[in-house]
Amino acid sequence: MNKDTTQAELIFQSIHLIQKLRHDVGQVFKDLSDGISEYIEEPAEKDENDGGSNKDVSKDKAATQDQKDTTGPSHEKSEEHHEKHRAILKTLKKSLETISHDFSDLEKTGANIGPVQMFSNIDNLSLDPVDKNTVTHSQLLQSYKWTNKMHELSDQAVTILGQNTLKRTQSPKFTNVKKLKGNTLSAWVAPQQTVDQCLSVLNQDHPGSNFTWSRPLGGCAALQIEIGKTLKAVVVLRGLTIEWVKIKGFDETFKTDDGQIDIWSSSRYQVFQKLTHHAEAASLHYYAPTKPDLAIKSFVMWLHGFSNLFSVPCQKCGKYLQNNMPPTWRDYRNRKPFHDVCRM
User: Fold this and answer.
1) Mean model confidence pLDDT for the chain
2) From the CB of residue 55, how many other CB atoms can be counted at a distance below 10 Å?
3) ∠ CA(8), CA(11), CA(16), 5° rounding?
4) How far is CA 320 from CA 91, 312, 343, in A?
5) Per-residue model confidence (pLDDT) at position 44
6) What is the mean pLDDT of residues 30-47?
7) Where does the record place Basic and acidic residues bias (predicted)?
């Protein structure tokens, strides 16, 4: 028999004996309560009869005289009291013997139960009788279940993402090592001269926009784009691959108080926050690892379509504003403007 199964049976048997012991103890107190009440009830009735009305005094005296003449009924009542007392003591003795027997059985069963193995100090929290402290234990159990569920979903996500042919990472866990050896000059390891040449061509192809770039951290280029008098954008490039996009209003800045470039803070306007989400989706849509320069040109051309953000209506509903928002979506193929709810 399994050890865990034996321990479970012993614990179940101990719980059953505890329930039986509690029932027997309750029965003892019930028997004592019933016996005392019967013992007190008869003298109380006698006092109540003595304190009754005195309407017929002659009848009471006659009854008293008859009682003095015949002492037989009084003797029978005394014997009846003794019988009740003996019955109460007998019942009490039997109940106490049953309790003693159950208690000895419980001690024998409890002695066979081994100590509970604590896996960590967290298990001791469940032994705390204070209710306000036991909440921590339940929350930890819930966090443990949630973590296990997250691991399961992560494994499923890795399986699904492993089937994708477009890999944006050099990790050998997700990319074939043979392909990496044959394609060392990839988009993310492009030389700085190649990146600068590509950005210079973009600046010449879009005369209505202003392109400036710098490398505050050495390797990655931070490209700042000003499109007319409408918006500003910062694009972080790792080689020729777009890694990060942020869009703000024309009256906002990407500089911190100490003059450093700020690529993390979002715009204070909801319309440009929405544009940032669309630009992140567009950077993934135009991603082309085999032709990274074409991917950047296509993304910048799509971004340049927002130069008339506040001056053109939606192609579907014909309105300039929808839910107090201009058309914040541009089609990937023809750059036609649509509201976020009209593009579906």
Assistant:
1) 77
2) 7
3) 125
4) 94, 7, 14
5) 42
6) 55
7) 56-82
166: three-class secondary structure by DSSP? coil
Q: Are 222 and 236 in contact (CB under 8 A)?
A: yes
Pick from 40-44, 301-305, 326-330: least confident: 40-44
CB 293 within 8 A of CB 240: yes
Q: How far apart are CA 18 and CA 327, in angstroms?
A: 74
Residue type, 231: L
Residue with tokens 């890795």: 158
Tell me the H-state helices in the chain.
3-50, 57-69, 72-112, 131-161, 177-182, 192-205, 270-285, 292-304
The listed range with the strongest mean pLDDT (126-135, 165-174, 288-297) is 288-297
Residue in the structure block whose two tokens are 């339940």: 138
Contact call for residues 60 and 53 (beta carbons, < 8 A): no
Among residues 146, 144, 152, the alpha carbon closest in space to that of 119 is found at: 144
- CA-to-CA dists, residue 175 to 219, 238, 240, 284, 332, angstroms: 23, 18, 19, 18, 28
Rounded Cα distance, 286 and 240, in Å: 12
Greatest distance between any 2 Cα atoms in the chain: 141
What is the number of other CB atoms lying within 10 angstroms of the CB of residue 83?
Answer: 10
276, two tokens = 């940032």
Q: Is there a contact between 234 and 246 (Cβ–Cβ < 8 Å)? A: yes
Closest CA to 308 of 328, 288, 284: 328
Instruction: Report the pLDDT value the prediction gives residue 234, as an integer from 0 to 100.
Output: 92
